[in-house]
Design goal:
27 strands; 43% strand; globular; mainly beta
Length: 322
Amino acid sequence: MSKRTMAILAGLISGCAIFLARYASADGLKLSPSTPRAMGRATLSPAAGAVGELKVTIKEWDVPTKGAHPHDPALAPDGSLWFTEQLQNKLGRLDPASGAFKEYPLTVEESGPHGLVADSNGNIWFTGNGKGYIGKLDPKTGKVTEYQMPDEKAEDPHTAVFDAHGILWFTVQVGNMVGRLDPRTGKVELKAVQGQRALPYGIAINSKGVPFFCEFGTNKIAKIDPQTMTITDFTLPEAARPRRMAIDAHGIAITPDGAVWYSESGVKPNTMVRFDPKTEQFARAPIPSGGGTVRNMVATPDGRVYIACSGVNKVGVVQPSR
C-alpha cells in the first residue's frame, strides 16, 4: 500500500478513532514502545467531488423489542447475524435469508450486554458490561453460563475476541484492565493497564496470536504478551484517541476483496463508505433509516457487511451490487 493511501486512511478514519494496525504492519512501519511518532497528524480526506456512488443494497430490520439499542453485531458459523440488545438485557439473532428473529433474555438483570463473538461451535460469548461478567449463550438450549470477574474493580468487560487457540481475550474499559478466559477451565485472568484512565476499548489478535488493544483514554495502543501477559504501549500522535482497530475485520470491516468499510456517524443520514486501497477511491451510500450511529460492523466471507444501528433500533446487511 502506498504512503498516500495510508495517509488517506489515517486522515479519514482518525475521526472515528480507529488505528489500522494491519496496514501499518503490512507496510513495515515500526512502532517504538512509548515513543512519540515522528509522523505528523494526517489531515487528508476525500474532496467532496471525489467520493463516488456506492452501489449497494442496504436492507434493515426492526429489532422486535423496542428500545433495545443494538450495539455490536457478530457473525455466527451458520451465517446468522447476532447482536447485543444493550438496554433491554437480551441477545438477538437474525436469519438474513428469512428475516426471522429470535431473542434470548439474559438471566442476570441489567447485564448491559455490549460486545459479542461466536466460537467455532456456534456458542455466543458476550460481555456483561453492566454486571462485571463474561457470558456464554448456547443457542440450542438458551442456557447462559456466567463467568464472574475475579476482581470487583473489573466492573465493565467491554469487547471480546478469540485467538487461534480458543482463548477469549477482552478489555475492561473503566476497570482499566485486559483479561483472558479459558473456556475449557473457566479460569479468568486479569492484567491492569498502565495509567489511571487508559480506558481499554477495541481489541484484535494479529497473525502471530498477539492481542493488540486501543487505549481510548490516551493516545496509545498496546499489545499484551499471551504467555506472560506483559503489556507494551505504543504512543500515537498527541491528539489521537484510538477506539477500535482492524487487524482483519474488527471495529471497521475489511471484506475479502481488501476493501475497507466504515460508517460516517457525524452526518445525517449516517452513511456507509467503501475505500478501495487498490484504486484509492471512495464511494458512499446513505443508510435508509438514517443509521442512528453505527457503532460496529463485521464482514462476512462472501463480502457482505453486517451492521447494528443503535439509535434507530435496527440491524442491517449491506450487500454490494454484483
